[in-house]
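Incident review: delayed structure delivery

Summary: a single-chain prediction request sat in the queue longer than the usual turnaround. Root cause was a stuck worker, restarted by the on-call engineer. No data loss occurred. The affected request and its eventual output are reproduced below so the record is complete for anyone auditing the incident later.

Affected input:
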Amino acid sequence: MNPETNYAKTDDGVYIAYQALGEGPIDIVWQFEWIGNVDTIWEFRPYAEWFRGLASFSRLILHDRRGTGVSSRNVDPPNLETRVADLRAVLDAVDVDRAVLGGALEGGAPNVLFAATVPERVHSVIWWYPAPRTTRAPDYPFGASHEFLDQAQQDTIDHWGADAYDIGDMYAFGSKMDSIPWGWLSRQTTTPDIAAEMGRIYDETDVRGAMSAIPAPVLLMARERDREALEYLATLLHQPQIRLFPGENTLKIDEQPAVLDAIRAFIGIEPAAPELDTVLSTVLFTDVVGSTEKQARLGDRRYRDLIEQHHAIVRDALERWRGQEAGTAGDGFYTTFDGPARAIRCALEIERRVRDLGIEVRAGVHTGECELIDGQIGGLTVSIGARVAAHADPNEVLVSQTVKDLVAGSGFSFEDAGQHELKGVPDRWRLYRVMA
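Output delivered after worker restart:
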């Protein structure tokens, strides 16, 4: 018997299909890495044996990301922030307080952001073939070339859903023993246009900036040949564990007993809930341009009325985009968000609406690990956010590189605003101007 499929409804009205099987004692949420459909995945022996193996010592929770499988299809492909929100909806629906988050390749990316932003709900993280970004870079030689990724995108568009479509050689969940009909399974996942867009989103995503904010233990698994890459990723984490397996080819699900044993050993002892003193957060700073001159021109009473209208607009936008007011200083706001895309949308709304008051604002957005000081967000990330805002021109929203990397697929376009020295902050920082 295959598990029963149920639906979790998100705040924006999307239905996320999920399944739960197993008795525990611990909850494991496993993300499909690329191809997946909670109903049809059980038709294939490698998948069925792998997931039932996990469920033999846990309650296993699977779900189809929006736009795929039997989740809502008539929606845009999800960006990273949306996938985190959808995961939270599934955990709420299954009544999971604290879970192990597992995934392979790009399936681990939303787990990173979730574990960094909602650490109190994460027991630990398992990442099979961790891929925080796909594209090779000077500081990340382990990624693929642009030429390879462009060809992979074209192959997806040309062959997705066709019988000849075969990614088994590079797919961690492929099998050396069974011939999985990737074409048929890909059709059950989504359509070629959505598949190509999901690939584009991930090729533009880099979650390394969020990894240092994960307080939970993280298990990184791959082949011995991948040691250098995993040792590098371990330097970005607070509690890394590396498990390497012998062999030259991609580690396949056929070798699942060894992988399952590694996972059992990793989660076998219940770690104490972390005493949270840091959390990944997005900070947004806004302030009114030329406020002193405007106050001198209007007089104190008229200017006070104007600023009260400005504050009302800002607070209304914060409520709409789920931001938290952390402080005000005269005509400036310091606010926090659990997702960078919402912070950008909030900043754009504020900038647009206050124009009707004859006011111009500048805004800066940064995402990073923040200290929790008496329950309030603080630390260097906050200072960086303020410095980013200080470099913005009137009616301009500037963001850091980290923010740009985390909002791929959110519909924004950016213009390179160059490298800048941020007062009191080490190094030079590349900033980007939000264009849409």
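Verification: The longest strand covers residues 361-373.
Action items: add queue-age alerting; document worker restart procedure.
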